[in-house]
Amino acid sequence: MSPNYIRSFSEGCLRPPTVIGQFHTLFFGSIRMFFLGVLGFAVYGNEALHFSCDPDKREVNLFCYNQFRPITPQVFWALQLVIVLVPGAFFHLYAACKSIKQEDILQKSSYTGFYIFSVFLRIVLEVVAFWLQIQLFGFKVNAVYMCDVGALEKKFNITRCMVPEHFEKTIFLIAMYTFTVITVILCVAEIFEISCRRLGFLKTQ
């Protein structure tokens, strides 16, 4: 791929053809990723080390932590961010290969339809991630986790485990839910903006 294609691709990703799309990029690329990268590591970085069960043995702690966290929240949210970016990346790669200028995307129906489809896919992926987050993490992190250690052939099948910094994790969970909702609202608003531009209610850029 030539340097011109790469430049067009990067400009398309960083500067979408709509005002709301540009705001979405700013929100998604700076606030959301910064929140996850910096605060997420601070909240969840040492969780496995401080997760302790009764009896406090390494094998029990490790077994129960894997049961408590089938996937760590940082990994889940990082995957979510990457996957949600894929539809837009494909569109801007297509636009770069076809030498489509950003200002022309909202002028031709086929380009506009393709772009709206990529935004709609973002909405679907965000909703699916929202549902998966509920299934994996719920809305609240309890201070005590009851772990089933029957597979370890222990005397007692259920043991109590202490979850470190559970209140901070609950706040972080709510924040990530909020970010997902905001992103979906921005995507819906972007489709609405495109529709208004196509109908002539707003001037094209």
TrEMBL record:
**A single BP term in Gene Ontology:** cell-cell signaling
Localization, per the record, is: Cell membrane
Q: Which UniProt keywords apply?
A: Cell membrane, Disulfide bond, Membrane, Transmembrane, Transmembrane helix, Transport
Give yes or no: UniProt keyword ATP-binding.
no
Residues forming coiled coils: none
Source species, domain of life: Eukaryota
Q: Which residues cross the membrane?
A: 25-44, 75-94, 114-134, 171-192
Q: What membrane topology does the UniProt entry give?
A: Multi-pass membrane protein
A GO cellular component entry from the record: connexin complex
UniProt main location, coarse: membrane
Q: Where is the Connexin cysteine-rich domain?
A: 125-194
Quaternary organization: A connexon is composed of a hexamer of connexins.
In Swiss-Prot or TrEMBL terms, this protein is called Gap junction epsilon-1 protein
Q: What is the source species?
A: Daphoenositta chrysoptera (varied sittella)
**What gene name is listed for this protein?**
Gje1
